[in-house]
Amino acid sequence: MALNQSLPSSTRMSSATPDTAMLEALVPGYTLISRFFLSYFHIDLTAYLQYVVALAVFAVSLRYISKYASEFFQEYLISYAEIRPDDELFNHIMWWMSRQSFMQRTNHFVASVRANVYFCDSDDEMDGSEEDSEDDDFDTDDFSDDEKESQHQANVVSRKKCEPLRFTPSEGRHFFWYKGRLMILERQQRTRNGAWSLFNERLFLSCLGRNSSLIKELIDEASKAFQNRDGNKTVIYRAQRHSRADPFVWVRCMARSPRPLSTVILEENEKHNLVKDMKRYLRSRTRLWHSNRGIAYKRGYLLHGPPGTGKTSLCFAAAGELGLPLYLLTLNSNSLDEDNLYTLFADLPRKCIVLIEDVDTAGITHSRGKTATIKSKGDNAAGADTEETSTEEQSSADKPPLDKSVKDGITLSSLLNVIDGVASSEGRILVMTTNHVDRLDEALIRIGRVDMQVFLGYSTKENIKDLFTSIYMPMESDIPGNDKTELKTDWSNCHNIEKRKIKIEWKKKKIQDYRNHVESLRSRIHPLASEFASIVPGGIFTAAEIQGYLLNHIDDPEMAIKGAEVWAKELRETKRPREEKAIENGYY
């Protein structure tokens, strides 16, 4: 009887042997699992095999169906735009996104206090300007109370200790609404190497529908908002790279208020001719004229003179006068090679100013030989000895050991090709500065590469008078209006009406006293400037030296005049050789 009862079970096991063997091969341990279920739960898994297979087939089919459905959906029902991180538009989008309301509600974001390519010091000034205007009282220096001024400065320092927080969308997808439509911002890294990099990611903007006009409107709005934040400021870029494996790119570093050209101490004719020549070059018909005649559309300038005479300041002031961005490039970087130099000049916009400071210190601009920018630690003369001997004439004992792993760097030939070669960029203004024009190779400063040279020498008597006047002459923006003061007072914490009126009257009196002081200073500024110029000798001091002294007495021009003779005497003792040379040249 027992044998008859066990027969069906063995029969079932034997009949299921092929299926069991197949499942054992696909699912290791299936036989043990099936026996466990059969012994303890009296469930034969073989009986449900067809359902398991059907479920597996359905899961696999669903996976492929969802994949193709997603591709079809993205291809025909979604519009998206990719913004590359090496493009300036990436900074525009990220800056605009960080100021949207959805960033205040999202729970996935990147928080930082460090400035980067789309956050800079100018942003902090704009974000804090309104707060400062509400909290700061009008400061009249000598007319203000010392105790209140100390308290005010303490409050400002305490407020500046707190770095502004910056929030940007983190890696992943972010949903937000724009003009009543659902938008998706997706940030993803190209390679997951564990290191986050601003230039190692991809940014996508997408929305439902085949019409991409909404995405274009968002990008246009973000770009205009980013550019409008600068106003009339001069935007400065510099060449840098984030790692050794990355190429050099132009990175925005700051936006500064333009410097008035009148504050640069130089002969008026020299400044006028320089700016006039730049404006003439930037005209549309000048570009057309060059194109019709097959002449390269580019312009080069060389500003040379002793250190501290205002060469960089003149270039910065010219950029502000013309409303052009300024691109800073140094040739002293050991990691900058020919390929990176070509790429940097190729990425320049149509109208801009490229400034190469101290071009003579690069060690390549005074020799035609293949001299790399890599210099020894003790070479402070910037390769001055190569003026008399060429690279080929140097003995092999003086040359550093050849290291094939180190690139040759920039050569004079590559620099000349970038500036004036067949593949050189057009439309830009190139400005080079140097303290020693005699160290430059003649091919670098010939006509066509350098179209105008401007010499900035030591300050003459007229320069000294102009510098004194520019520092101490009050400007209209220095005097606040009463309307603004009343507006600020309305937001004060004065609860008593009488106290508020007293405070308003007190501020009005301070402003009126300051106005009287300004008017008095304006009427005597020119006699004071002449007196100062009669004390300080011309042709000996640079504009930077004189300006540094005057800034020590920024609130008291009379005190500056009183100590000018002692200051000039002490400084002349250290510059006696320069004075003798100035006498020979007829400056003094």
Q: What does this molecule look like?
A:
Its main location: mitochondrion. Belongs to the AAA ATPase family. BCS1 subfamily. The relative contact order is 0.08. Helix content is 46%, strand content 13%. It has 4 domains: 22-76, no CATH class; 80-228, no CATH class; 234-374 and 406-455, Rossmann fold (3-Layer(aba) Sandwich); 461-584, no CATH class. It has 21 helices and 13 strands. The chain has helices at 2-15, 17-26, 30-40, 49-76, 88-98, 102-105, 121-135, 146-160, 213-228, 268-282, 284-293, 311-322, 338-346, 412-420, 461-472, 482-490, 497-535, 543-551, 557-562, 564-573, 576-584; strands at residues 78-83, 109-112, 166-169, 172-178, 181-189, 201-208, 234-240, 249-256, 299-304, 326-329, 353-356, 429-434, 452-455. The N and C termini lie far apart (135 Å). A hairpin with an 8-residue loop joins strand 7 and strand 8 (249-256). The strands form 3 sheets. It has a 7-stranded mixed sheet with strand order 8-7-10-11-12-9-13. Strands 1-6-5-4 form a 4-stranded antiparallel sheet. The longest helix is centred in the last third of the chain and has 39 residues, at 497-535. With 588 residues, it is an alpha/beta fold.
Topology readout:
Elements lengths: L1 H14 L1 H10 L3 H11 L8 H28 L1 E6 L4 H11 L3 H4 L3 E4 L8 H15 L10 H15 L5 E4 L2 E7 L2 E9 L11 E8 L4 H16 L5 E7 L8 E8 L11 H15 L1 H10 L5 E6 L6 H12 L3 E4 L8 H9 L6 E4 L55 H9 L8 E6 L17 E4 L5 H12 L9 H9 L6 H39 L7 H9 L5 H6 L1 H10 L2 H9 L4
Parallel strand pairs: 7-10, 9-12, 9-13, 10-11, 11-12
Antiparallel strand pairs: 1-6, 2-3, 4-5, 5-6, 7-8
Helix pairs in contact: 5-9, 10-12, 15-17, 15-18, 16-17
InterPro entries: AAA+_ATPase, AAA_lid_BCS1, ATPase_AAA_core, ATPase_AAA_CS, BCS1_N, Mitochondrial_chaperone_BCS1, P-loop_NTPase
Keywords: ATP-binding, Hydrolase, Membrane, Mitochondrion, Mitochondrion inner membrane, Nucleotide-binding, Transmembrane, Transmembrane helix
Family: Belongs to the AAA ATPase family. BCS1 subfamily.
